[in-house]
Known about the structure:
- The chain is mainly alpha-helical.
- 59% of the residues lie in helices and 7% in strands.
- Helix 2 runs antiparallel to helix 3 (60-75) and helix 4 packs antiparallel against helix 5.
- It starts with a helix and ends in a 14-residue tail after the last strand.
Amino acid sequence: MSFQRTHRCRAAGAWLAAGLLALAGAAQAAGPAARNVDPLRLQYEREKADCLTGRTAEPRNVCLREAAAAYAQARQGKLVSRDDRPEVWAANALKRCDAQHGEDRDLCRQRVEHGHTDGSVAGGGQITSLTVRSTDVPASPGR
């Protein structure tokens, strides 16, 4: 009996999420009328749909509570700080390189400025890598 109830709730959640996504898509495709659509509300509806369809790593109730809290803070202008800009992120990343020494510091800076980023925050993290080719000949082993 519990399985049937859970299955029905998941199915209902999936239908609700699909409906919300369709409404959001219709609002975006509406042209001039879509200018009156609140982008914060659309973001909230997308996050809510992700919660309801299980596309997040959090339990559904936690996910819905976090999405609602983020929406409330965004509407009050509290979600984004003045330091939340890409140029500030880049400066912070370069500051973290200062903890390294010598060649490691130089490689860190190159990785920050020219590296390739894979992954996502939602997937558990981002990794920035940099491939450096060297023409140095290594010393003979055993000497």
